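Notebook p. 47: complex prediction with zinc ion.
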Amino acid sequence: MPKYPTNDDSYRFLFEDADIRGETVILNNVLKRLTASHAYGPGVQKLLGEFAAATVVISNNLKFAGRVVLQGRSDGPISLIMVECSSDGDIRGIARGELETPEGPLNIHLPDGVLTLTIEPETGQRYQGIIAVQRDELADVLSDYFEQSEQLATKFWLSTRAGSSAGLMLQQLPKQRVTDEEKRLDQWQTLCALADTVTPDELIDTDTDRLLFKLFNEWDVKRFEPKRIRFSCNCSRGRSLNAIRLLPKHEITELFDEQQTVTMNCEMCGDSYHFTRNDVDQSEEPTIH
Ligand SMILES: [Zn+2]
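Predicted complex, structure tokens below:
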């Protein structure tokens, strides 16, 4: 068995005798790919790792086709950090700002920052929540936010180090199996206290079955089939061409007066698309996505 799991799987699980569910993820190859398109220093790589693990465990709970976008903005070292993950497990992300900024707590990277959590169904209304960055740890910021907005207690444990990250989430479900309030609260506090015993390294190095056994071996846990997480960017030649076509006519003319070929680079994955004036003139009318 390899020392470290090299898969990029996310799991859901359920406590059979409590109204509590959970999610786990370990990201390795996906995270390496996600951070490969820019010269991110170790501090930003770790931050992206935490954002990625958090976005996966949140998106795993989507009950419809769509995506979750977790974005942070600040006037501090990191002006923007964004990770999005679809219900199919396609993930991509980016950070902007001082990319060499050293490792440190969240509110040093994003002082007085704001996180935005967007849940975007493929069809229908999107939902957006705004969260002030007032804690050192992303996991605590998210735990506070979910507790306030969902009114179902939710807690996150996130861990990241060079090239790997992992996440664990526990969430109370509406009353179903356990109707006694006191027992419900006691179960929640007990399971959170058990999860609190996990160390950051254990979270990354322990595959989900072993982790669930290690933390919750006295509980009856039902673990569901894993979902594979993949790095995937939905940029395309067509979308890039659209972006040029949406410019005012005189700007397009100026652009191609200066150069024969215009190159559009995707910031997320590093892919490049090249266009000539002819490509623009012969393309369909642009559509706005
Ligand atoms: Zn791309």
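Notes: The chain has a mean pLDDT of 92. Residues 105 and 136 are 5 Å apart (CA to CA).
Next step: compare against the earlier run before touching the bench.
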